[in-house]
# Entry
Amino acid sequence: MKKIQFGNNDQMPALGLGTWKSKAGEVYQAVKTAIKTGYRHIDCAPIYGNEKEVGKAISESIKEGIVTREELWITSKLWNNAHAKADVVPACKQTLSDLQLSYVDLYLIHWPVAFKSGISMPKNNEDMISLDDLPITTTWTGMEETVSLGLTKHIGVSNFGIIALEGLIANSKIKPSMNQVESHPYLQQDALLGFCQKNDIHLTAYSPLGSFDRSDAMKANNEPKLLADPIIAEIAKEKSVSPAQILISWALQRGISVIPKSVNPERIAQNIASEKIILNSTEIEKITALERGYRYVKGNVWVFENGPYTTESLWA
Ligand code: A2P
# Structure
């Protein structure tokens, strides 16, 4: 199993199970199956609305002796409505209670975007707080507190661009050790990956398969279908594997972490088997040439007229 090495020698399994979009009724079985199949890394977040079911599956797997807590790597995230310093530790504790854990291995600021307290999904400008009024560095002091309280082993961020990371690195005691962002052949994130590597920040790729199970409201008209890409299909056919397996093995070969979501037992098994696939340099060149700067998760739900966030500022 490929591992990502952290500064203190902790090792995160590079391949994890994504749980975004996994329905509460399905995710319990998916996590149990994944752990039985050999997954040791589960990616979670309270906004996915399923942490209790994930927690039940983890707890049962431990009780059944299939895995120990120490063998698992559990990541969760701070939602955008808990960025005030005093709200971070309680939010982390709520996640731990839902996941039935005493600590998570990695806790991330989900977005560089703040909502007013109690707002789960913003409807308008009034629900938002600007980062001038509630800076990420303030939220980060709460994140650092989760480490000193032993609630998490590592802290990091998600959906951060280079400028946002620079600001955080310059103003933090504990440096972020992870940035979880969308990444796949259509959005390879080379500049961001290079910046992260220079600053000892690991990168996790979300939506590695293009997340076609997003709600229609989140989908653009005529968006490109990554899993149906003819080059990916051609390489998959040559190697007698599936297109999803090519996408996962490509991410792993870049030395990054990747968290494909599945609630289907065959696909859960298929995805972890991607670790065995080795792409040659010609295949990698063909995949690299697919870059088109295409973002499936645009973050435009946080952008309102006269609001504090713009699409440009979000990804800067
Ligand atoms: P399912 O959960 O029914 O397996 P992403 O990880 O980019 O968010 O993509 C998740 C989507 O990809 C889900 O619709 C998931 O469906 C599907 N998926 C996961 N694994 C595979 C696979 N091996 N082959 C095809 N589709 C897959």
